[in-house]
Amino acid sequence: MNHIKTRKYAPRATVLATATLAAGFSPLTAQAADADAGAVQATDLDKVQVRGSWFAPSSPKFTAELLDTPKSVAVVTEKTLQEIGATNLVDALRMVPGITFGAGEGGNSTGDRPFLRGFDGQSNMFVDGLRDVGTQTREVFDLEQLEVVKGPSSAYGGRDSGGGSINLVSKTPKLKNETSVSMGVGSDRYARGTVDANYVLGDGIAARLNLLRHAADIPGRDAANVSRWGIAPSVAFGLNGPLQVIASHYHLETDDLPDAGGFPYADPATGTTSGRPLVPDRNNYYGLKDRDFQRTRADISTIDASYDLGGHKLRNIARLGNTSNDYLWTQPDDSKNNPNKYGTLWRRTNDRAIDTRTFADQLSLTGAFRTGALAHSYSAGVEYSEEKSSKGRYLIGGGGTNNAIDGTQSCPTTGAATGWNCTDFYAPDPNDPWAASHPVTRSDKALDIRQTTRTTSVYAFDTIELSPRWLLNLGLRWDDYDTEQVTPVAGKAPTVLGNSEAFLNYQAGVVFKPTANGSIYLSYGTSSTPPGMDSGEGNDSISAAIQNLKPQETKNYELGTKWDLFGNRLNLTAALFHTEMNNARVVLDNGSTQNAGSKAINGVEIGVNGQISDRWSVAGGYTWMDSELKDNGYVCSVPSRTGCPAPGVWIVSPNNGNVFPNTPRHAATLWTTYAFPFGLTIGGGASYVDKQYGDAANSKWIPAYTRWDAMASYALQDNISVQLNLQNLTDKIYFTKAYASHYASIAPGRSATLALNVRF
């Protein structure tokens, strides 16, 4: 792909990154191309696309090197994922400060739910540049790299919550015979095996196969465990010519005894359900072995075809996706204050049975040209997507006095008299015989809630070189969005909700280059969040109250700088940003919902990343976020699930001025490795996350924490190594997810894994 390089300065040497790119600030360690013989050479980096000095996103919508892109973007490489021992998306993103995670419940599906700059990013997930709807617990075995775009990014991907997006880049074939096998064992019955095999089949033809088998208990937790397997074959034609075609399929299945990691918010001093989670014993598992399960499946087929026209490239990528997420798991409910009153807990059951099918197609043209004295690097395209979801549930019957599948119950006692739905808060028994008296059936599929979302989009990006020191970055996208949700009602006409809207988003940034290895930029970008954008799986579900509303609109101002120093071995970044949503959906004093609220967040991001020497790498990142719910509308003085019954009246929200949920004020990471000349590499790091509120009232929260990790690897031969990872070294008790009302999810305890890695 062609990208603008300023004419005044000589091209910069390509370097090798061994951790994450911090175009915004996220961790990166780099090795110079002229590193000594013990270092990996840049010519071996055929796994990762490189533009200029630093790794870059795979998306053709980025029309300049990241050094010259006026946007905070982070790229986590496959090498980094291996070093830190990541096995899922939560692991992979823990080295990116400012990203937190939310918990699921009845209305919000259980699965990956990242928060970016304080905004829920569950619906802003992409695979190879195409939106990946359907809640999942995503794996890393088939990932080439992971890309995070910070701030409103509707110009890149369409509908957006306002905080940014995450793109997973799949592994594809290359013209090199190479196979990598990794076999790992560890504490808590950890066992993991992966295979990455690439073969050249003919002239410009190659195939690649990635395999996974993984099983483990949850460190520091009773009963809960995970089990999954995956396969991802792909074949490519024309890798040495202008016409290239890549066909691939991704399959992943999981079968877990799920762990909400849950402990309820409870304050014994005040006898309320507010405050931090109450933890009598971190090992306590409040679920039931013979009841709880979570099974997911993902099948994604992709055809990626491109043709190099000489200075321009025409590309079409088409995808069919089919995912499912079925679960029935225990939420440690606190609504009746059972832990404080009786020392018991209500085992509320959350359930979901959802299938999501998608079709998406993206046609793009990229390249470079000149208009007089101006040089252009452009990307333009059209997209179409169709998403269909079918959502049902599981029904529970049988004996016991408290056997509802959801809702809340008081538990003055426990055991058989409660149908085993109430348990001892301090000594729960996951082996209670619940299932014998509670038959579970799938709801009638004819009554599943069905939602169909269709989107047609047109976009264009251009980086214009105004002079050797000044660049202008422009982007524009128009989306025609239409969604419809049908809820069947037995013996009656179905309830139909829908929203149709067209919205325009854009971004603009100016870049000043005082030298070839540095940039200073000022940018502006927008996003649109229409009703129903999450296909009924999260916070943006459509309802009668919001179906006719306009999209929420978010805008972002950012001032930043990026520098490659010490011969392009060290990268420094810094950014100031201000994000605001001025037409947030809130309830007015008449009980209606309108686009009348506002919220804003100010922040600072700083990163220092790269090679202190040829053998010593360091990566660090820090973010400060000051968020405020400026106008949160009105609330009922006597709240009820059914509205605002008498004598309730609508009053100004007492949450005005509060902090965003899931938004720590401070967060920081540090990771460093040192490679000795005799084959030993050691590394260690820490992650700090400040206090986070779970709710808009700021009455429920999880405390700040610092987590420490370490690794060591030793090369037995050039192609054989062993790697030891120690996670959560101090066995710190901390929480990773805060749900708004009921509970928070505790993090895994200390664990150790040892892997044998062979390449041939």
Automatic annotation (TrEMBL):
<dbReference type="Pfam" id="PF00593">
    <property type="entry name" value="TonB_dep_Rec_b-barrel"/>
</dbReference>
<dbReference type="InterPro" id="IPR012910">
    <property type="entry name" value="Plug_dom"/>
</dbReference>
<dbReference type="Pfam" id="PF07715">
    <property type="entry name" value="Plug"/>
</dbReference>
<dbReference type="InterPro" id="IPR037066">
    <property type="entry name" value="Plug_dom_sf"/>
</dbReference>
<keyword id="KW-0998">Cell outer membrane</keyword>
<dbReference type="InterPro" id="IPR039426">
    <property type="entry name" value="TonB-dep_rcpt-like"/>
</dbReference>
<dbReference type="GO" id="GO:0015344">
    <property type="term" value="F:siderophore uptake transmembrane transporter activity"/>
</dbReference>
<feature type="domain" description="TonB-dependent receptor plug">
    <location>
        <begin position="66"/>
        <end position="164"/>
    </location>
</feature>
<keyword id="KW-0812">Transmembrane</keyword>
<feature type="domain" description="TonB-dependent receptor-like beta-barrel">
    <location>
        <begin position="252"/>
        <end position="729"/>
    </location>
</feature>
<keyword id="KW-0406">Ion transport</keyword>
<dbReference type="GO" id="GO:0009279">
    <property type="term" value="C:cell outer membrane"/>
</dbReference>
<dbReference type="InterPro" id="IPR000531">
    <property type="entry name" value="Beta-barrel_TonB"/>
</dbReference>
<feature type="short sequence motif" description="TonB C-terminal box">
    <location>
        <begin position="743"/>
        <end position="760"/>
    </location>
</feature>
<keyword id="KW-0675">Receptor</keyword>
<keyword id="KW-0798">TonB box</keyword>
<keyword id="KW-0472">Membrane</keyword>
<keyword id="KW-0408">Iron</keyword>
<keyword id="KW-0410">Iron transport</keyword>
<dbReference type="InterPro" id="IPR010917">
    <property type="entry name" value="TonB_rcpt_CS"/>
</dbReference>
<keyword id="KW-0732">Signal</keyword>
<keyword id="KW-1134">Transmembrane beta strand</keyword>
<dbReference type="GO" id="GO:0015891">
    <property type="term" value="P:siderophore transport"/>
</dbReference>
<dbReference type="InterPro" id="IPR036942">
    <property type="entry name" value="Beta-barrel_TonB_sf"/>
</dbReference>
<feature type="signal peptide">
    <location>
        <begin position="1"/>
        <end position="32"/>
    </location>
</feature>
<comment type="similarity">
    <text>Belongs to the TonB-dependent receptor family.</text>
</comment>
<keyword id="KW-0813">Transport</keyword>
<protein>
    <submittedName>
        <fullName>Iron transport receptor protein</fullName>
    </submittedName>
</protein>
